[in-house]
Amino acid sequence: MSDSGPVQMRSPVLTVRRVDAYHAITVVAPNIAERFRSGQFLAVAVGGEHSGMLLRRPFAIHDVKPDYGGTVEFLFSVAGAGTSWLAERRSRDLLDIVGPLGRPFPLPRDPVNCVLVGGGSGCAPLFPLAQALRRRGCRVDLVLGAATADRVCGSITARRVAETATFVTEDGSFGVRGRVSDPLGRVIEETRSDVVYACGPMPMLRAVTAMADRYELPTQVSVEESMACGTGICMSCVVPIVGDDGITRMARACVDGPVFRGERVRFDDVGTIPFDALGAPGWKAQPDGRGADREAG
Amino acid sequence: MSSDLRIRLGRVELGNPIMTAAGCAGTGRELARFVDIAQMGAIATKSVMLEPRAGRPSPRMAETPSGMLSSIGLQGPGIDVFLERDLPWLLSRGGTPVVSIAGGSAPEYAELARRLSEAGGVAVVEINLSCPNPADQGRDFTDDPAEAARVVHAVRSHTHSDIPVFAKLAPDVADLVGLASACVEARADGLSMVNTIRGMAIDPATLRPAVAGGLGGLSGPAIRPIAVNCVYRARAALPDVPIIGMGGVRTGADVLEFMAAGATAVAVGTVNFADPSACARILREFEESVAGRGVARVSELVGAAHRPTGASLGG
């Protein structure tokens, strides 16, 4: 109910189009567009008003434009009944959307050199981030990868928003063969990077964080956890995160994230409850009050 | 004509019968971004325990037809943080707190009740009895009416007499009416029904359970007819005991259905995940519906389905 928080709205679809292996939907949503900061996402209801599919689908916001008072675009691949339904939407259909949700990518105060690393549809939120960084005078270099050429998104835009763009595919059908973490060391050295941003599957984020760590660079990662509500209520999307006080908490990707500092994510323990996490069987309250519940960092 | 929406849960009066269900509104703070929580009859907070709790591994949920399975494992910060941070916040925003408590033994529940009574501002204490009882081979307290009654009695004895104590029951028990009666005999002021139903889904790709623990709690509109039947049976057996009805409520018409079956108040649960402003919409729909029927006081609707055909309603 505050001016900066998320809003729920029934937004008219402006366009639905194919972008290689993905679908892109643009909706008219001025209240979401004006609040948006890069890294935030939408939670979209699927199946219509009487749908038997109760859970909203979370999608990173890929683009925001001032047209029609403000539009937002998101990318998705068809993976089930919900995304099939979305792919069948047409111009002027209404979508029930909530956004912008989640903690955005923090932006550096000074104009520094930034490498942005994306895997698959995880490339989507990097484009508004690149623009925000450029507006701050930062140098932006992109490393974008996917399994195959048609799943590398935004290859044309990439060359426009970044100084350099390196493409990586697992099958070698486009750019370098391998994984995004393979050429990352070289890109960090050549561009004298100061900070690394990444979005994609958990194993990729782990490899990128490890590589950046080798160069002692800070990493901001955006996780792609499955969610039920997207608004912080259901506690489905938890990830073990180490806080400023050294205590691990099961943090919600939707409201405490989706952006976390890479070195704070316990990648080896994702999907589990680490034995020493706050409130886990091995956790013990400290007499000095350490362990009081606070926001994870 | 506008209707008198007020209802009573024992000694406590609520401004209207529509509230949130425990675990489906956080502490009110998350939902307050979409709904004016002071407008709701009450806000039931996520079950609080004595100590912080990390919960269960992920995946913690799976979508099922018109419902979802969840296995969160009562993740929460514990009673200290709840009393220091969450309860004062809820009261400062004009929320009416129904505080759900969870524990592993009757003394644990009793200690939670005592601390909540001392804190002040709690409208209702709701006992989440769907918790494993280590002293009963890890079966839930609801699986044995005697164990459930022991907890209810301990909580009632440690709760201020002005605060009603409601026992929350799961529907998948051997003898629901027997369990409800045992709780009332142990001096529960009312019943909350129903909690989730145990269920399972198998991931078609991996052929492994879709929820990490295997077992999940089924909720959402899929369980509504089961919940309505449970409320109906409890009302028939215990007509003087107030019931908070819940299970798949999605519209104002669903609220009417639960009230007719015998619920005095009705809680909105899983639908908050799908539609964060659902509570406000459901309240609006309910108000329009009762005004349209010419109902003077909504409390007259409670148990309407038990009356003989043709009995007058409202007016």
Automatic annotation (TrEMBL), chain A:
Entry-linked InterPro entries: Cyt_c3_hydrogenase_gsu, Dihydroorotate_DH_ele_sf, Dihydroorotate_DH_Fe-S-bd, FAD-bd_FR_type, FNR_nucleotide-bd, OxRdtase_FAD/NAD-bd, PyrK_electron_transfer, Riboflavin_synthase-like_b-brl
Residue span(s) of domain FAD-binding FR-type: 6-107
UniProt-listed GO biological process terms: pyrimidine nucleotide biosynthetic process
Keywords from the UniProt entry: 2Fe-2S, Electron transport, FAD, Flavoprotein, Iron, Iron-sulfur, Metal-binding, Transport
PROSITE patterns in UniProt: FAD_FR
Needed cofactors: FAD; [2Fe-2S] cluster
Keyword Transcription in record: no
Binding site residues for FAD: G82, T83
Tree of life domain: Bacteria
Co-factor remark: Binds 1 FAD per subunit. Binds 1 [2Fe-2S] cluster per subunit.
Binding-site residues, [2Fe-2S] cluster: C229, C234, C237, C254
Entry keyword Iron-sulfur: yes
GO MF annotations, alphabetized: 2 iron, 2 sulfur cluster binding; flavin adenine dinucleotide binding; metal ion binding; oxidoreductase activity
UniProt record similarity statement: Belongs to the PyrK family.
Stated name of the protein: Dihydroorotate dehydrogenase electron transfer subunit
Source lineage: Bacteria, Bacillati, Actinomycetota, Actinomycetes, Streptosporangiales
Automatic annotation (TrEMBL), chain B:
Subcellular location: Cytoplasm
GO biological process entries: 'de novo' pyrimidine nucleobase biosynthetic process; 'de novo' UMP biosynthetic process
Active site (UniProt): C131
Binding residues for substrate: K46, N128, N195, T196
Catalytic activity: (S)-dihydroorotate + A = orotate + AH2
Keywords noted in UniProt: Cytoplasm, Flavoprotein, FMN, Oxidoreductase, Pyrimidine biosynthesis
Domain of life, per lineage: Bacteria
Broad EC category: oxidoreductase
InterPro entries xref list: Aldolase_TIM (IPR013785), DHO_dehydrogenase (IPR050074), DHOD_1B (IPR033888), Dihydroorotate_DH_1 (IPR024920), Dihydroorotate_DH_1_2 (IPR012135), Dihydroorotate_DH_cat (IPR005720), Dihydroorotate_DH_CS (IPR001295), Dihydroorotate_DH_I (IPR049622)
Protein residues bound to FMN: K46, S47, N128, K168, V194, G220, G247, G248, G269, T270
The keyword Flavoprotein appears for this protein: yes
Record's cofactor remark: Binds 1 FMN per subunit.
EC number: 1.3.-.-
Keyword RNA-binding: no
Chief subcellular location: cytoplasm
Domain Dihydroorotate dehydrogenase catalytic: 11-288
Pathway linked to the protein: Pyrimidine metabolism; UMP biosynthesis via de novo pathway
Reported cofactor(s): FMN
Gene Ontology CC annotations of this record: cytoplasm
UniProt-listed NCBIfam families: PRK07259.1, pyrD_sub1_fam
PANTHER family given in the database record: DIHYDROOROTATE DEHYDROGENASE (FUMARATE), DIHYDROOROTATE DEHYDROGENASE (QUINONE), MITOCHONDRIAL-RELATED
HAMAP family documented for this protein: DHO_dh_type1
Family: Belongs to the dihydroorotate dehydrogenase family. Type 1 subfamily.
Record's function text: Catalyzes the conversion of dihydroorotate to orotate.
Name by which UniProt lists this protein: Dihydroorotate dehydrogenase
Gene: pyrD
